[in-house]
Design brief:
Layout lengths: L13 H13 L5 E9 L17 E14 L4 E10 L17 E6 L4 E4 L4 H4 L3 H4 L13 H14 L1 E2 L5 E4 L5 E12 L6 E12 L13 H20 L3 H26 L5 H4 L9 H6 L12 H8 L5
Antiparallel strand pairs: 1-2, 2-3, 4-5, 4-9, 6-8, 7-8, 8-9
């Protein structure tokens, strides 16, 4: 309460909204007028004034404007807006529609879309101001253009066509729904040339994605997705796998151990000569002792006189 209503209108719809109000004020005879615009959703409050959901989302509404004079003396005009929300007409993928409301589209001879019914919003998801002056032929499925070329030839020659075969028309989310169309046209009586073509479209089958208001994938999103795909391929081809990484770590550890061992060998001091010299044992003198053995009580190393006195027989 107290805030301007236009603050809740989507920025892309504010010019159309302001133009609608200006037209209503300029032509007071027009009591009611309508338009389709997106209004910001209520984001919800928890405790106090803390915003619970910070994502700003918008929802399409059908607005009905009414200008009323509350007091004739002061000439104060009030704007009364009745807002009716739009929801997707489809609930399941490729839904067969039994009682769809037909809607009208009109485009010029060069294909520019001049008018589209607000009734088309729940089926196609487009807001009229978003597709006005856009190429209407871009809504047709590429594989159906061959058949539609024959349809337009019939329209130019005959001026109308009762009802076509089923063909595909693109919704706002990028998917296609199946339609049948009754065609009529207006030919300028002076120039004898086609001025515009009117198609009354009947929905036969819904798109694969039932949410026609879903934002389609943009070129920026496609480029971003392609960059991610290229990054994944690069990771698979360039980044080492876990076994290869473990093998690399083990090889690195072995190289480090070998380098440490080689450094330790280079840092050790050479041994001195005393440590390298062999201990030579003293010569064995046992043969002297062997030669000193008494043979028959006589030793060659004893003095002769001693031996003689020891063996001689005393004289009587």
């Amino acid at each position: 309460i107290g805030r301007s209503f236009i603050d809740f209108v989507h920025p892309r719809d504010r010019n159309t909204f302001a133009s609608q109000i200006t037209s209503g004020l300029a032509v007071p005879k027009i009591v009611n007028s309508t338009m389709v615009c997106r209004i910001r959703r209520y984001r919800g409050l928890t405790t106090g004034f803390g915003v619970k959901d910070r994502v700003v989302t918008f929802m399409p509404f059908l607005l009905k404007f009414t200008f009323k004079n509350i007091c004739d003396e002061e000439k104060v005009i009030y704007l009364v807006i009745q807002a009716t929300p739009f929801f997707s007409a489809f609930r399941i993928p490729n839904e067969l529609v039994a009682k769809a409301i037909p809607f009208v589209m009109r485009h010029s001879a060069n294909g520019n879309l001049e008018y589209i019914d607000p009734e088309s919003v729940p089926y196609l998801g487009y807001l009229p101001q978003d597709v006005t002056d856009k190429d209407a032929l871009l809504l047709y499925h590429p594989e159906d253009l061959d058949y539609l070329q024959q349809v337009y030839e019939t329209i130019v020659k005959e001026g109308s066509m009762t009802r076509t075969k089923v063909y595909r028309m693109m919704a706002q989310n990028g998917d296609y729904l199946k339609v049948e169309t009754e065609w009529s046209s207006f030919i300028n009586p002076w120039s004898k040339r086609l001025e515009f073509v009117i198609g009354k479209h009947h929905i036969i089958e819904g798109p694969a994605n039932p949410d026609v208001f879903q934002t389609p994938v943009t070129e920026e999103d496609k480029n971003k997705a392609q960059n991610f795909r290229e990054g994944i391929v690069r990771i698979m081809n360039e980044v080492l796998t876990k076994p290869a990484e473990m093998a690399k770590q083990q090889m690195t550890k072995r190289c480090q151990d070998l380098a440490t061992f080689m450094e330790s060998l280079m840092e050790e001091q050479p041994k001195v000569e005393e440590e390298l010299r062999l201990d030579i044992q003293d010569p064995d003198h046992s043969y002297y002792e062997r030669d000193s053995v008494m043979l028959g009580g006589i030793s060659p190393h004893h003095d002769y006189n001693d031996s003689k006195s020891s063996t001689g027989t005393p004289l009587s």
